[in-house]
Amino acid sequence: MRKDEAYNILNLNHGADEKTVKKAYRRAAAKYHPDKHHGKDETEIKENESKFKEIKLAYEVLTGKAQEPQSHQGFGGSYSNFQDMFAEAEKQRREAMMNGQNIEIQTHIDIKLAIHGGKTNITIPVFDICKECDGTGVVLDEVNQGFGAQKYCHSCGGRGNISSKKDLNMNIPKNTKSGARFRMMGKGGPRRSPDGKDGVLFVVVVYKDDDYFKNIHHGLCVEAYVPLDVWIIGGSVYIATPTGKVTVEVPALIPSDKLLRIAGKGVGGNDIFVSIKVDNNYFKDSDIESIIKDLGKSLRDKHISKDVDNFNLKTKNKLRELK
User: Fold this and answer.
1) DSSP secondary-structure letter at 150?
2) pLDDT, tens only, 223-257
3) How far apart are CA 14 and CA 19, in angstroms?
4) Which residue in 48, 75, 95, 233 has the fewest CB atoms around it within 10 Å?
5) What does DSSP say about strands 103-109 and 201-207: parallel, antiparallel, or unpaired?
6) Which of the listed CATH numbers 1.20.1050.10, 2.40.160.20, 2.60.260.20, 3.30.300.20 matches domain 213-282?
């Protein structure tokens, strides 16, 4: 193909820069792409197929790629030429029209099961052929003089199948991470054609919260309570993890929303997080409350806080400004 032909095919002026060429190619390719023409007759599909090839070649000519060895990546594989790529795309399109829909569900498991592995019961969707319409989705509606017309089957809503639930035992491997995704072939949506395949069911495993571990970001978190003196001056606390007892160093005056990360001590080598909490009972004891107040007054008397003074000054100025 000559360059002047390529410019005409992409509806471009001669000498257009590469950015303009790429934009025109994407616009034209989107219009004639195979995925845009589902359900059309064979003649129209072939015409679009031919036009799509022509657009692709014009783009390669104008960007200097037509002389390079062609190795197109896309549609799930590597192809020696464009014809192979288009054939594979058409094959996948037809399979998608025949095969059942993929479905994803979640199941929640205990931390102990995730660590040691075992069986868990899950409820999955099942699809049975509708007996009322024999899976066609339509039934004959009888009218006067013996003539009939088709109408949607009310039993299945025109789907051709009836959905229900089924309990199934699922194997959970040792050290299963929260968010792990398991594939069950043939357990998804029903095939749309006798030549198709039932869809895939994906089961996503999520940890259950318990009275010790919380599930955050597909990892474990422990809320560790420490005495007031440890929170003020720093110290340590030990926690339970899937790998055993671990000592955690507590920084002084750690904010309540800060999480400490303990690397590699979660399930399957994941990290585990620790949230440091102060024992609330300290603040309910009148003697302790009195001690804390005296301590606070003593600290204020001995320590000049530039940050506090600066904030107080800003507050006074802002109040004047707002009057």
Assistant:
1) E
2) 999 988 888 889 999 999 988 899 999 999 898 88
3) 14
4) 233
5) parallel
6) 2.60.260.20
